[in-house]
Design goal:
235 residues; mainly alpha; 13 helices; 82% helix
Length: 235
């Protein structure tokens, strides 16, 4: 069965892209049918792709190469996040100090909590620095982990997992903590769960999406600058 599946998938040079889109589409359908937060297209789609690769025995490197057209679309998709931010530029200008303070606080909490937990659990330095950039985009986080002596591939997996968890729990956290201000929601979601969380923020509202998009960029820069400082505490 696995050989038949592998043969079927490998016949097309774009089978990875087709599989990715189909898995995401199925996850979207299930979420609409069930209405459950845990039926996230990102989570279910990722699990489905992993299951198919495991059953078929196809190597991940082949899937990654075949799914490259989807990866290329991430660049314009990320740039497009600037559009809602531009539309809310007056709101940004009026609340710039509070927004920047909120992003800085989120970055410090993220880095500080990882450093504290790493010391408490006696993790090796390579493992600890791999986890430090968990809340920024993979493009930044993997480079930061590599520069600090960590494992970029593991950092990428942790970053994606962090984004998925942030996307799943963001509405619940905001409701539980009674966070109603759209700016606060967007800043918190973007700082904690980067682009994947921003997709959820855009569902909550235009302001939430714009602030979350801003938080991705600022948090990425701050993490790249501050991660070496926290990594020094792990020596």
């Amino acid at each position: 069965m696995s050989e038949v599946l592998a043969s079927f998938l490998s016949r097309s040079s774009a089978w990875g892209a087709a599989l990715t889109i189909a898995a995401f589409g199925l996850g979207t359908l299930l979420q609409r049918r069930t209405g459950k937060a845990w039926c996230s297209p990102l989570l279910l789609g990722s699990l489905l792709v992993m299951a198919i690769l495991a059953v078929s025995g196809l190597p991940y490197t082949d899937f990654k190469a075949s799914a490259s057209p989807v990866s290329y679309l991430l660049l314009p998709a990320t740039v497009s996040l600037a559009i809602p931010l531009y539309e809310k530029r007056n709101l940004l200008r009026e609340n710039a100090a509070a927004i920047l303070a909120g992003i800085l606080a989120g970055v410090l909490v993220s880095l500080g909590s990882i450093a504290a937990l790493s010391l408490a659990m006696d993790l090796e330095r390579a493992q600890a620095v791999t986890l430090l950039p968990k809340s920024v985009t993979t493009a930044i986080g993997m480079d930061v982990a590599s520069a600090l002596g960590g494992m970029p591939s593991l950092a990428g997996a942790v970053i994606v997992l962090t984004g998925i968890m942030g996307s799943l729990t963001a509405p619940w956290v905001c409701e539980t903590l009674r966070i109603t201000d759209p700016i606060a929601k967007g800043v918190g979601i973007g700082t904690a769960s980067h682009a994947i969380g921003t997709a959820k923020a855009l569902e909550l509202g235009e302001t939430e999406g714009a602030m979350s998009g801003l938080a991705i960029a600022v948090a990425g820069v701050l993490t790249a600058a501050l991660a070496p400082v926290f990594a020094g505490l792990l020596n």
